[in-house]
Each structure stands twice: as C-alpha cells, then as structure tokens.
Please model this.
Amino acid sequence: MKIIYLDYNATTSIDSRVLEEMLPYLKKHFGNPSSSHIYGKAAKEGVEKARKRVAGLLGCNVSEIVFTSGGSEANNMALKGVVETLSTKSTKGNHIITSQIEHPAILNPCRYLERKGFRITYLPVDQYGMVDPDDVKKVITSKTILITIMHANNEVGTIQPVAEIGKIARKYGILFHSDAAQTVGKVETKVKKLKVDLLSIAGHKFYAPKGVGVLYVRKGLKLEPLIHGAGHESGRRAGTENVASIVGLGKAAEIAGRDINKYRDHVFNMREKLYWGIMDKVDGIKLNGHPTERLPNTLNLSFEGIDSEELLCETKEIALSTGSACHAGHKEPSKVLLAMGIDRKLALGTLRFSLGKYNTKEDIRQAVSLLSKRIKNK
Ligand SMILES: Cc1ncc(COP(=O)(O)O)c(C=O)c1O
Model:
C-alpha cells in the first residue's frame, strides 16, 4: 500500500541531490574541519561551501551563519544568548515579547526564562493567527530586550508581518529574532528585508537531514554561547561540526534558493486542488489560517462533527497531522487554534495538510477521494 505523505511541515525526506553531496563526507572526507592536514582541509571546505550557500539563501554574510543541531537549538541559542549577554551589561532588561502561537521550541525556553525571573509577554493573535504590529508597539517598555515572533506558523501557515515588527524593534533599539523553521525554502527569507537580528532555520523542513540547523546572527551582535567548549563556529557554538549534515543543508539551501518559484507554484496548485476537491464533496468545513498571507503548502481545515484523531486512525493510507495532542489519554485541542478563537470541539476536528515537492496530482486525487468518503460515512 502506498502511503500518501502530506505532513511536510513535520519533516521532509532528503532530496537525493542532497544525499549525493553528503555521502563523500561520511567516508572519504571524514576529517575534522579543525585539523590542518589534508583530511581536515577537505572537511572544512565542505562546511565553508555550505556556509556560503546558506548565506546566499538568506542574503547575508558568511560570518553571520552559525551551524546548530536544528531549529530548537537555534531558538534556544537566540533567546538564552541574548538574555545572558544583555543581563551582564549595565542596561539590564528583563522583558521579552513573543506570541501565543509560537512553536514549543520558543514557548518552553520562554517559560524557563520566566522561572529565572524574566517577564514574558505572550501576544494574542487575530482569527487568522496574525500578530498585530501595533500590539507589539503597545507592550514595549524600557526593560524590553528581545522580541521573538515566528515567521510562519507550523500548524496554520499564517505568515507574520515580520518586516513591520522588525521596523518597530529597530526604532526602539530592541533585538528582534524570528523562528523561520517553516519558511526557509518555502517563501523568501532575506534577512535584510525581514529586518531581523537573529533568524532560526531547521534543515529537515526543506529536504536536508534532521539534526542540523542554523542561527543567523547579525554582524556585530555578540551572543553568549549555549554550548561552551573549543572555538568552533568562531567561538559561538562549540563541538566538532556535523560535517555531512552541514554539507547537506548547504546543498538544500542552494536548491531551495534556485527553485523557490517552481516549488511555490507546485505546492500551491496541489494545495488548491486538495482544498477545492474536499470542499466540493464535504459540508461544514472551516479553513484556518490567513486566506492569503499563508505558506503555499499549508492547509488547515476543521470539520464539523468529526473527531480528527479517530478519522486518522481509520485513514492509514494518508500521513498527516491533526490539530490536537494526546496527553495521558486525554485529547487536548491545539493551543494555536484556541488562540485564534476556534472552539474546542471544532479544534478537535482539525486536520493539517502540509504538501511538499514530491506530491503528485494523483496523491491529491486519492487523498480527496479517501477522506471525503470516510468523512461522509461519519
Ligand atoms: C516553527 C518551528 N520551530 C522550530 C522547530 C524545531 O526544529 P527542530 O526539529 O529542527 O529542532 C520546528 C519543527 O517542528 C518548527 O516547526
């Protein structure tokens, strides 16, 4: 049985061109990039080529790229690094602004910092999951040291007005971080346009391997490292580099930059086919997320009178996510959907479809047919 994969916001498979580029670094070029002999040099060259490619995708300088173990580490490094760095300076501030719909890789470091005495403002969102830049402005105080707002939400795909928020942050002299794990490779992510000081990337969301990511750190910004040790990554992140995965991330960045329009058109067309296909056959559907300011691959739908966990259990032919989490046998609706004002019952009837470059028209046709039949039989 072929399983239709519609969960690309959770993770992607590795692009075969990425894998091909990685393989020599797992065996032939096994050297430590810090070694000065030929093996070390070959590995270092791989890492630096990747750095150049990622910098190209983000439109920044190579010195502004720090390789990490993924999006979670990049987010932790940004938040804890800013806090550690600024709280040792005379301008002590203890206030951070974020939103209610961030990924746990932001919300949980925020909660940790709250326990350490920092004050966090979790901004609300509107019915489309959008943060209002005016709300950001209203909560800034003389103690605010950091604003962190995600570029696009992983569940509903709403793209935040990051550049506008960045402008406000600059005006007030406050550092601005954005979690771009869901946008890199899907929409343009040039750091200058976005007006960010810090930006997080996760390789496995755009056809690179899992366990590798990047934190963009604007030139001149010195952050206390999360991992102390030897002087890797110009003293910003210790640990012998994950060379093969970094090489893979670099290749994925090159492909993403080159093919971004092709990717967008493909996933957008597939997504619209899926949406209208289901809408045509099933009543009582609510589209969650912004109608236009949304990731081209993401479709989040609530179905009236449906338990989406149950539906997925019966639909093993399709791999996708629900809008809920199961805690100790008790179903909890998605906090993102609740923050958008969607009622609990409807939230528990939600499916997140996230498409990728390997989906075909036939995948969509089958998914529409399978799901609409199962839903009608409920
Ligand atoms: C928005 C967002 N931020 C951060 C992460 C975490 O990235 P990683 O799995 O590389 O740690 C994810 C992955 O699910 C995500 O969707």
Summary: Residues 70-72, 103, 105, 150, 154, 179, 181-182, 202, 204, 213 surround pyridoxal-5'-phosphate (CB under 6 Å). The mean pLDDT is 95.
